Amino acid sequence: MVDSQDLNQTYDQNQQPVDDCDATFLSQIPTNDLMDLDSDMMLQLESYQEVLRLDSAPLMEDSCDQKIEQKPLLELPSPALLDHLNKTPTLDEHHDPVFNFNVDLNGETSGKSSWMFSSRLNKVFVKMGQACTFNISYQALTYQELYVRAMLVCSTPEDMHQPVFRCENHRCSDSSNMKLSDGVKTHVMRCFNPSARYVGTEQGVAFKDRLAVIIPLGTTIKEQAALNVSLEFVCQNSCRIINRRATAIIFTLEDVQGQIYGKKSLHLKVCSCPKRDKQKEEESLGPAKRKSDTQLLAPPGKKVAKVASVQRHPSQQQQRHTPSPTSGKLAFIKKELSLDSVGKPVQKARSITPSNSQDVVEGTGIPVTLPMPTVELADKVAEYAFQVVAAELIRSSDNIEQKKLAAFLTSIRRVQSRASRKKTAL
Fold it and tell me: pTM above the 0.70 mark?
């Protein structure tokens, strides 16, 4: 049974009963006599509570049996370290001994000749539609989330600003595009790593906007980590977009903000016959050694027969290496096939360059003065102008327009000839 007097008792926070007289006394205290707490006093109380909390913190840590390891906060890189994101990609390499980033291949050729590597050229020749595996090694000594970025770019300085994306022909004829998103269809590189991400835009020029593949590496600490990145190339260098330009692939080791800790580049060409193109480019570096140039060792008891070499006159040698007037990139426009009265094709020569080509250039041409640092770069710019005008000539069907463009091609060749003579004089 509960007494009715117990119900009338008042309890404080410690569950101690209060007498009726005490309760009556407390209720009679006027509230106007209580002290008002202004804002300054409230701040003092809060600071006092903060001091008490800091003083009691070591006691709380000592009472914990298990200590929790706190990860250091990541410092944001300076803007100078991220300046490359808004610039055109370059082929200069960056090596940080702390991360020791490196990229290589398994030997110089694959088992099925799907790709070949030339150590003399530092260049990879890979067949279109075939996978090429790159071995990536690095070391991670801190808790830091790292990524590997692979990017295909034009390697010559005058073409670095040109974006590399897939041509319309291969993009429309590929049946696998039905399963891909629109952002992946424009990429020339396809990565077989399941965690790969495709970034960039088709017309991106800056580093951050270029089409590339990013593979996350995680945040684990490893003294020496390795990763195999398998890439497939779905366009050739001879396609309309790349337009036979020299290309290279850039690998970078980055963090979340985009700061580069390692950078490697390899020249790369996507072609139909890697072995043939590799041999051609290596032979262009220098003539291969002949047997007559090497010292022959005779077996015991026999002598080596001396072979008389034919000495050529210097004028004959110079005449042998002098290119013919019709040689060049537009030699095919000098001849055409026509039909005779019987209907058989008859080959006849024609020249579309007008006799007054210099007058045509001076009368209709737009002069452009572009100082260049070296004669080699000036010759490359003239060669690029020649290719652009030649492409317009091939697409044109008007005879008058073709003769006009042919006059400009002749003028460009004259400029290149003067530049070569100037280079020889220097």
Answer: no
